[in-house]
Amino acid sequence: MNVAFAAGGTGGHINPALAIADKLKEVFPDTNILFIGSPDGLEAKLVKKAGYDFASVKMAGIQRKLTPHNIKLNIQAVHYYLSAGKRIKKIFDDFSPDLVIGTGGYVTGTVLKTAIKCGIKTALHESNSLPGVSVKMLAPKADLVMLGTEDAKKHLGECKKCVVTGNPLRNNIPIEEKSAARKRLGLPDCLTILSAGGSQGASRLNEAVVQLLAYEQKKGNINHIHGYGKHGRDTFMQSLADNGVDAGNPHFIIKEYIDNMYTCMCASDLIITRAGAMTLTEITAIGRASVLIPYPYAAENHQYYNALTLQNANAGRIIDDKELSGSVLIDTVNRLADDPELLRLMSENAAKLSKRDAAGKILREITELMGIK
């Protein structure tokens, strides 16, 4: 079987595609896999690193905010779009895919539209609670639509076949007991908070966390692990010093980049973070309460809808980015930290949202679609 993937733009689109590809190769080693994406996008880097073949198509997204510079970019994007169909058709002629799977990003729309015109079977996977433009547009025509959450169904109209599979992770999370994870990190066995704004960092989150750390230092007996990211490299440690926070406090682990994230997540009682789909997939897989600050500039504000899925299930609390401050974060964390029973309940509710073996469920849907036994 030959399977082509269309995914691009962000890790939230690319990593689910890689996870599906990994599962296909694990169960059906003779499957030929090809990824299609922009040569300048993150997909080119991640796909090649994963060892899969990659075919490039010049594509670009439409800029919603109209400025003179963005208008030029949009003209270029339209030019790419008009010429992409011919390039994609050539890729299909050379690769002869039996199935084309799209997982989001602007490349997905054009590739799957071409596949549908060519009579090739198509499948979509949407990791977010608010489906992207490409998925909304293609859902009525695709042969199979797989969703990361139940909430995503609410935003899709006509759909030949919609099924909630969950979001697949490339690697199984090595879940361990909190106390064991804390011991491995060299932390005392007490209330533990993890916060991070991603590898780049989040300036507003960093500013609020400095105030939270200062508060926790005075209160005592609270562990806190924080990743301040690239954007905090030149400012975060100085800000700690300016606020009287001892970075060497035995209760604190403060790093630019957390390279043992799963251990830190397992050690935590509460996680403070953005609301990307795959991050929330990991949080629910481990089963942890969360305070979520959706990235306000995500396409169609989809991170807010991701966070809302957890908040509505009493598994998380949302703080809008524009409302985030040290005092707001301290108040939110305090109310949760002072109620161990609520933290426990929220963690249990998070675990209930987890879709176990999402990759396996996706594989079963694909094999059924393709008539493979």
Brief account:
This protein is an alpha/beta fold and 373 residues long.
Please give a structural write-up:
This protein has 373 residues and is an alpha/beta fold. β2 (32-37), α2 and β3 form a beta-alpha-beta unit. The mean pLDDT is 90. The chain has helices at residues 11-27, 42-50, 68-95, 106-117, 133-138, 178-185, 203-219, 236-242, 261-267, 277-286, 302-312, 326-337, 340-353, 358-370, and strands spanning 2-7, 32-37, 53-56, 99-104, 121-126, 144-147, 162-164, 192-196, 223-227, 252-255, 270-273, 289-292, 316-318. α6 (178-185) packs across α9. Residues 3-145 form the Glycosyltransferase family 28 N-terminal domain. It is an enzyme of class 2 (transferase).
